[in-house]
Amino acid sequence: MGGFGIGSGTLVWVAIGAGALIFSLCCCTCIRRLKRKRSKHTNLIHGVLLSKEFRNGTGPKKFSFKELSKATTKFNDKRKLGQGGFGAVYRGYLKDLGIDVAVKRVSKASRQGVKEYASEVKIISRLRHKNLVKLIGWCHERSELILVYEFMANGSLDSHLFKGKSLLTWDVRFKIVQGLASALIYLHEEGDHCVLHRDIKASNIMLDSSFNAKLGDFGLARLVDHAKGSQTTILAGTFGYMAPECLRSTKATKESDVYSFGVVMLEIACGRRSIEAKYEDSSQSLPSTRVSLVDWVWDLYGKQRLLDAADEQLHMGFDGKQMECLLMVGLWCVNPNPNLRPSINQANLVLNFEAPSPNLLDRMPIP
């Protein structure tokens, strides 16, 4: 047959052209979305930095990238204090102020990094309490997001409890719990808004040169009205410290913060992680199961052997009344039923022996 047929070569070029057009359209769409996302993030950060605290100069100080690079010797790995999911923390020295600082450089690869950065600056800049890590300054330039905190000479609580940095005496441990309780009372009850921290854990509790506890890392924190006292969000926190209801409803509340506080109390008293490997016998090289610290302590309480939960490394070097009180309040705070947990004020009264110990069931309640 003659005529008007299209050759195979022409079809190939038409297909290539169509493919190129589709590819170009996809690229343009992706670029537009990226620009919108960047614009949204930039507006979010600028909104925070133009807030009342920053305009009045009462908030954290703005640093240049050059200043912070110099302070950390160009972010030298030898100055790295730690590495988290949202970036690395470096030790720095600000010559003009004459102080050591901890410099948190948000990773450019972190999807949540910008939100964490904005949340941290927005919330912690308005907080003033001796048991909260102080935010000294910030930097937002050259696509860099950097936060500058006061330097904590003794690092994080978990480095002492679980990583062998030093053996904390009982007096120091009890003081850490009291300091953390004081910080939570301030966050939950004493400000214009209730602050839900949402990630209370041993690695977020820092210790200064005198081993005073200071709660840090407010990247997941949320502000809520006192009357409401809760907020439904995406699931956030750390497994082992999260209240059981958060796994079901993703609702953050004062009660879920209190649960995390309870877990930390048990870790401090027992010297064990919230979730720990269990070995059937000493010959095994691999753990057979994972055990919950909460379950273990509650089981000992039911057997009337509560003080057996005390950290063996203390070699009985503790005040028995304080240890029992700390373990009891810890179990009270981790009750699976959030309605049966104490407020942070109630827990603090018992810790200071200004109220009687709670009445607990012999067995951990079923959620």
Describe it.
There is one protein chain. The protein is an alpha+beta fold and 367 residues long. It has 2 domains: 61-150, Phosphorylase Kinase, domain 1; 157-351, Transferase(Phosphotransferase) domain 1 (Transferase(Phosphotransferase), domain 1), CATH 1.10.510. It is 40% helix and 17% strand. It has 11 helices and 14 strands. The chain has helices at residues 8-49, 52-55, 65-71, 113-124, 157-161, 170-190, 244-249, 254-270, 293-302, 320-333, 344-351; strands at 61-62, 80-84, 87-94, 99-106, 135-141, 144-150, 194-196, 205-207, 213-215, 222-224, 230-232, 251-253, 275-278, 289-292. A 6-stranded mixed sheet has the order 1-5-6-4-3-2, with helices on both faces. A two-stranded antiparallel sheet has the order 7-10. It has a two-stranded antiparallel ribbon with strand order 8-9. Helix 1 runs parallel beside helix 4 (113-124) and helix 8 (254-270) runs antiparallel to helix 10. The longest helix is centred in the first third of the chain and has 42 residues, at 8-49. The protein is globular, with a radius of gyration of 26 Å. Mean pLDDT is 84; it is low at 279-284.
Briefly, what is this?
By secondary structure, the protein is α+β, with helices and mostly antiparallel strands.
Write the layout of secondary structure elements.
Layout: H1 8-49, H2 52-55, E1 61-62, H3 65-71, E2 80-84, E3 87-94, E4 99-106, H4 113-124, E5 135-141, E6 144-150, H5 157-161, H6 170-190, E7 194-196, E8 205-207, E9 213-215, E10 222-224, E11 230-232, H7 244-249, E12 251-253, H8 254-270, E13 275-278, E14 289-292, H9 293-302, H10 320-333, H11 344-351
Parallel strand pairs: 1-5
Antiparallel strand pairs: 2-3, 3-4, 4-6, 5-6, 7-10, 8-9, 11-12, 13-14
Helix pairs in contact: 1-4, 6-8, 6-11, 8-10
